Structures are given as C-alpha cells and as structure tokens.
Amino acid sequence: MIKICLDAGHYGKYNQSPCNKAYYESEAMWKLTEHLKEELLTYKDCEVITTRTDQTKDLALYSRGQKAKGCDLFISNHSNAVGTGINESVDYVVVYRSYKNKNNADELAMKLAKAIAETMGTKQAPRTATKKSEKGDWEYYGVLRGADDAGCPLFYIIENSFHTNSRATEWLLKDENLKKLAETQAKTIANYYKLSKKTSMPTNTITLDSAPEDINWVKERLNKVLPAIKGITPLQLNGKYDPELRIAVLMYWLQLGWGSHMQDDGTRIGKATREALAEGRKE
Questions:
Q1: How far apart are CA 194 and CA 44, in angstroms?
Q2: Residue 92 CB: number of other CB atoms within 10 A?
Q3: pTM across the whole model
Q4: C-beta separation of 62 from 143 below 8 A
Q5: What pLDDT, on a 0 to 100 scale, did the predictor assign at position 61?
Q6: What distance in Å separates the CA atoms of residue 283 and residue 280, rounded to the nearest whole number?
Q7: What average pLDDT score do residues 62-66 get?
Q8: Alpha-carbon distance 52 to 10, whole Å?
Q9: Which of 171-180, 200-209, 257-266 has the highest mean pLDDT?
Q10: What is the pLDDT of residues 197-240, one digit of tens each?
C-alpha cells in the first residue's frame, strides 16, 4: 500500500494572475489537487490524504508538510510567477525536491516535470531544482521542511509553469486541462510505484465499508451506463460510498427494470448488479 499526501498551494483567493484576473493560483491548484486525489484513487493499493479539507482556511506551511507523517510521498501543487507583471518569455515546469536528493528524489521529480511539460505544451525545457535554507542545514520551503521532518521519504513542490505567462494561465483556467494534468501526474506516480488500475470485478458485495478501489470501480462503470443526471453524474471518483452513489445505484436498478430492488436503499451492491456493470448493460 502506498500512502500519498497532497497539498494545494495557498488558500482563498491568492496570487491573482496579471494575465487574466479570473485566475487565482489558490483556486486552480485546489481544483487540480482534488482531481489528482480522485485519479490516484482509481489505482490499486493507493491511499490518499490531503493537508486541508477547506479551501477557504489557511494552515501554516510547516504544519501542512507535517501532515505527510506516515506517507510515502508528499506533493504540493503550485503555479509559478516572475515578479508581479506579465512575462511571456518564461514558460516551463519546475519540480523542487530534497536538496540532499534523499532516496534519489531527482528521479521522480524529473519524470513529473517532463510529463507535465509535455501535457501543458510549455515552451522551455522542464527541470528540477532545490533550495536550502541560508541559516541552516534544512529545506528552505516550509512544506518541504515539514514533510522532511515528518519522515516522508519523497517530498516535492510542483510548479505547473507560470501564471505570469498568458498562454499557461489560459491553459490552467480550463477545468478539462486541470483534469488532464491530474491524470498525467497520477499516471507518472503510478508508474514510479508500479501501481495498476483495478479492472477486475470486485468479488464481494460492495457496501459503505468497502475498499475505496472497489467503490470507484462501481462509480466508473455507473458513469458509463447512466445518462447525465443533474447533481448526480458523473460520480466523483473519491473512494466514498456517498449519497450520489446510492442514488445512482437506485437509478441503475430502475433503468434495468429491477423494480423489486427499489425497496432497497441502494447501499449494497450485490453480484447481479456488479455483473451487469462489468458487462456494461444499460437496459
């Protein structure tokens, strides 16, 4: 089991882009982090936590890094800036890692930087970087220092290009692109840890207490067989048996003509339902 701690850079409305006033680093990176969590949870043997549950509330940098205690990987997502004005000449991805290169940290850092740069189509070469405190032998960035002190083996800050660059800003403003970015980061992490997506049908009845990967298996397939239901589908791949999933299960039974199931509350997904989902049945 791999445990990953995700951190969204900043909170509230912070670091507005001079290129487009609709862009705030804090808001975009929160969305990216949520997408990344959902994507990582589609892989087997992967547990994901986040440093905060409320985007509007702050938490000290070091404290955020400390949340990585007991985790195998810590990632803090950001977008970079050159001063406070527009700068169209700077457009690259940089991943900050352990300045001591603990556990060969540069390997995954470079893999992430290259994959993100390719997805975003940045103009300049991706790179990794480090920054050591001038006053001592420790990480300069608070989140990395906190993760290091917590004993996390690998810890990174990802700068997903620059929000002082118009092209990069417009790209990051689109939710569909943030989802692509999340898929890229998750795939790179999964390849590094040799994680695979769960494709086989779960063998046990799925309930509120089932494993996150089994719950996501159901959600992925319900998203394929159900029509768009406002406020319900597409279901979020968050590993939780939430109210939306319960309603979607009831809707699926109704769609299949299984009227007798409508006396159930939708919190148990038995063999017949799992088989229908595995086959992709819509009626």
A1: 10
A2: 19
A3: 0.74
A4: yes
A5: 97
A6: 9
A7: 97
A8: 10
A9: 171-180
A10: 766 788 899 999 999 989 999 999 999 899 888 888 899 999 99
Residue with token string 């940089």:
94
φ, ψ of residue 70 in degrees (nearest 5): 85, 0
How are strands ordered across the β-sheet holding 2-8? 46-50, 2-8, 73-80, 154-162, 94-96, 127-129
Rounded Cα gap, residues 164 and 187, in angstroms: 27
Type of residue at 150: A
Residue 161: how many other CB atoms lie within 10 Å: 26
- In Å, how far are 64, 155, 181, 213, 227 from 152, measured between CA atoms? 12, 7, 24, 24, 43
Least-confidence region, from 121-135, 160-174, 255-269: 255-269
- For residues 228 and 55, the model is more confident at 55
Spatial contact of 126 and 113, defined as CB atoms under 8 Å apart: yes
What is the mean pLDDT of the segment spanning 147-170? 98
Tell me the three-class secondary structure of the chain, residue by residue: CEEEEEEECCCCCCCECCCCCCCEHHHHHHHHHHHHHHHHCCECCEEEEECCCCCCCCCCHHHHHHCCCCCCEEEEEEEECCCCCCCCCCCCCEEECCCCCHHHHHHHHHHHHHHHHHHHCCCCCCEEECCECCCCCCECCHHHHHHHHCCCCEEEEEEEEECCCHHHHHHHCCHHHHHHHHHHHHHHHHHHHCCCECCCCCCCCECCCCCHHHHHHHHHHHHHHCCCCCCCCCCCCCCCCCHHHHHHHHHHHHHHCCHHHHHCCCCCECHHHHHHHHHCCCC
Task: Identify which of 156, 96, 105, 120 has the alpha carbon closest to the alpha carbon of residue 28.
Answer: 120
Q: Which residues are registered as beta bridge partners of 47?
A: 3
CA–CA separation, 261 vs 168, rounded Å?
A: 50
**Alpha-carbon distance 112 to 76, whole Å?**
13
